[in-house]
Design a protein that fits this description.
Layout (H helix, E strand, L loop, with lengths): L11 E6 L7 E5 L12 E6 L4 H5 L7 E5 L2 E2 L5 H9 L4 E7 L3 H7 L8 H27 L1
Length: 143
Amino acid sequence: MNGSLNSPTDPVNITLKRGPTGLGFNIVGGVDQRDAMNDSGIYVSKIKEDGAAALDGRLQEGDKILSINGTKLENMAHRQVVNIFRCAGNQVELHVLKRPKEDWTRHRPAPAGWTPSALSVLGFLLALSACAVLVVRRFRSSN
């Protein structure tokens, strides 16, 4: 053993303080986004450079988030979890099941032909589309 008190399968608590760019990570999963292993859990898909999670250093890509501030994430849709994160406050306690990096890569490969930059562009376009819808709705309601 390496002297660690926790085995790789023991959940850990990680408390993050929300920074100027949020908590600094992205998630995937939920009952509406099951993976190839038919797992509906919520996983960390990306740690954002210089974000709160990266600066803390304990949360890693592939970690499974079991709860947020004591709210268990079992059987929740992705959007529900995103809303819980948005309302979680400035200090967020995560109950996390650590997952080895090689295990994450093996079970959640990137879609064929997709690169991190392509995913970033897609995310940007989706956000831009959502903003355009909001602007149109606001314009219509003011007339």
